[in-house]
Amino acid sequence: MKKRNLHAFRIVHMSLFYVVCVGLALLSEYYDLQLIYGLTFSFTSIFLFLLLLTYGLWPGIIGALVVYTVSVFQFHEPMIDLINVLEIAFLGVILNARRNMLLLWDGVYWIVLGIPLMVITYYFYYQSLSMESTLIITTVATNGLFNALIAEMVDRYVPQGFRGIVGKSDDQGIPFGQVLFHFSITAVAMPYLIFVLMNSWNLDKAITNSTHQQAMNTMNSMKEELNKWGNRDIRGIRLVSKLQIGYLNELVSKHTTGNLFQIVITDSQNRILAGNDPHSLEKTHYDWRADSITIKLGETFYEKIPQKHSIIMPTEEWREAQYIYNDMLTRIPLQIYIIMPIQNYRIQIYEQFLAQLSYLLLFIIGSSLTSVFINRAIARNLSQLALTTTGLVDKIYYRKEMEWPNSRIVEIKSLVDNFRHTSHKLLLMYHDSLEMNKKLQEQTSMLLSSEEKLQHLAYYDVLTGLPNRLLLSKHLEELLIMENQMRLPIAVIFADLNQFKQINDTLGHAIGDNLLQTIANKYSKLTSNDCQVFRFGGDEFVFVLEGAEESELLEVTNGIFSSFAEPIELQEMKMYVSVSLGVSLYPRDGQDLNTIFKNADMAMYVAKEQGGNAVYFFNPELNKLVTEKMLLDNGIREALKHEQFQLHYQPKIDTAQQTICGLEALIRWQHPELGFIPPTKFIPLAEDSGMILEIDKWVLQEACKHNKLWQDRGLPKVPVAVNISGKHFYQGNLFEVIRRVLTETGLQAQYLIVEITEGVLIKNVDQVLETIMKIKDIGVQISIDDFGTGYSSLNQLQRMPIYQVKLDRSFISNVATDTKKSAIVKAVIELAHSMNLKVVAEGIETSEEMNYFVQLGCDELQGYYYSKPVPFETFAKLLEKRDRFVLEKGEI
């Protein structure tokens, strides 16, 4: 709609501009510029040229025909109008093909067609070429060229906004040479033309004044003589006496000089009495206004122009034009007419005017040659520079040789040097770009050739080759869209390896990576069209079952567990690995991807907390467990601040004496809202959050303080064992903490045993060894807790200043009946004794277990068979009965 309105707006303005140009052309034709004695200067063709330049051939010709047809009927000069119409037609044909250089082609028209046609016409009509004809031809041609110059300048230099309004949106620019040419021609032609016009007008005025003065002097002289006549002469005039008429003729002859003017004397009724004008004497009455146009130049002075029109000579009527001066005598009833033919002055004026126009043409030719010379010096160099720099990029691309102009003008020379330097830089840049493009093409080829590989890397795990987390999300999103329509369930199983971090830390990442690859191969064998496996990250894998029925789900989970029934052999090392599974079902357990993932992950962690090698299905109760976990995590700090933690102590029994030889400090938490919270719940949380460091410091402080209090009461002095997290060894200040606690509590170092897990000995061995050596040097004993569950080597054990090792509970139960366990326990005890290490068996719950380890020569026993962990005061009673412990253990 907007484009349509804009188009209509332009059509209206173009039509209005066309009508205005035609109207101005008609006005210019009617109100032409009068020079002198029939010579005129018209601006009509300026507007017709603009029509040609704006609208093209036919609109321009139609406008010219309208204007000059009206002119023929109005002014009766068909030849000049025909020449002008031919000029418009000729230029229209030329400019229709190339719409520039109007002045040049107009000059060609006058030289080739316009002037020759006028010369032939005048020669054919008058049988000769007079000075007057030459002047007419020169004036008309000069008029046409001047109008072409003005029209070309208007078309070239009109503002772009106005050009757009009239439909000329092309803006090709103006060559500098053309601007220089216009300036040169205009600078010469315009002032000189104004001078010619002013000179012609001044000359006409001078001739008129001179003629008027001469006629007035003659009139005064004649009136002076006639005023001397007496009454007799006056009566003779009234009676038309021949005598008085003869006197009048003598008076006319006396005051007439050559052919400069004639005199006619009439009576009051305009009857001719005397005179020497042959045309007037042929008549009886003198009517000087008949068949002519009279122009009053003074009170009694007129210009008389006969009403004659020539179809080829516009100055024809001026050949018989006259100045008329008349006056009436007061005493004598006579009127005197002094007639001065303009022809006497016209030829002289025409010759002078022709000379001036010739000079004008010579000056124009001279200025044109000057502009050409300057153009060669300036514009030619600029044009050559423009031509050289046109398509500069292509020339550089095809390595074409460029010809740079040479100029002595400083500015142009500097401009050429700048362009030459720029082109050289562009050439260097182009060569660099070719090299870069070549490299880019090579890289593009490499990228294209590896597109499939990149696609594989984007959606598949590099280590295992299984689909990765990104492809899992995409696959599940597609399934959710499809299953929403079919309403079939989807099962998501999170499978997480148990103790993988410990394996990775103790055996190294290479072994861990090999283990993941082996497990991925096992999982891949469980896949089918409806069951896909993905690596979620780390040691977590995800199984996705489409349309999961209960039987299929059990088959997959059992298959996963079966994959770990046999030990995995890696680098000549066999290891048993277990897995924890968490299951979430769509749409039962969630309506979106994130919820399903979260619930499956939550269920998997519950399975892991249940001891691993188990599967757990998500249920809403898990949210409560997670909430409880968060509550515990946040409550650990509060427990330290508000003394919610307590220490319980479990005795260690000397195997040979069956008396208390030591004790282990065990932390307990009585939560104000949740009640008793076992260590198995909050210790892992404290490990993850880092609060275990503060808890261990508190336990160490309390255990040493309590042991010192018992000793101060006179109770037997036995060492207290405190479990220390491996994180202390990586903080670098465990030694300072122990020394400070011993100093503050006053407990001797020999009554403190620091228990560390076997895994601490594997990671950062040198740092751990340095810390243990410092602790050992001050007298504190070192014990390895849960010995046999880690992956420490004998070489590492023999380097450590260890006091004792504690067998894990997993080796104690059913040891008497399990031959494999029995063999392992015997070997460990014998190995420890060979290394001068004491052995503690913890978790003794039956007399059979107690007797078995006594027979094996185990140094110390610990477990519920003797006593459960008890508070501070209760354990003090145990110490009081130390020597009677076995006999009275049933009292505890």
From TrEMBL:
TM spans (from-to): 12-31, 43-67, 79-95, 107-126, 133-154, 174-197, 353-374
Keywords of this protein's UniProt record, alphabetized? Membrane, Transmembrane, Transmembrane helix
> Locate the EAL domain: which residues?
629-883
PROSITE patterns linked: EAL, GGDEF
Q: Which SUPFAM superfamilies match?
A: EAL domain-like, Nucleotide cyclase
* GGDEF domain span: 488-620
What InterPro entries has UniProt attached to this entry? Biofilm_reg_signaling, EAL_dom, EAL_sf, GGDEF_dom, Nucleotide_cyclase, Rev_trsase/Diguanyl_cyclase
Among Pfam families, the record links this protein to:
EAL (PF00563), GGDEF (PF00990)
Superkingdom of origin: Bacteria
Presence of the UniProt keyword Membrane in the record: yes
For this entry, the protein name equals EAL domain-containing protein
Q: Which source organism does the UniProt entry give?
A: Paenibacillus sp. SYP-B3998
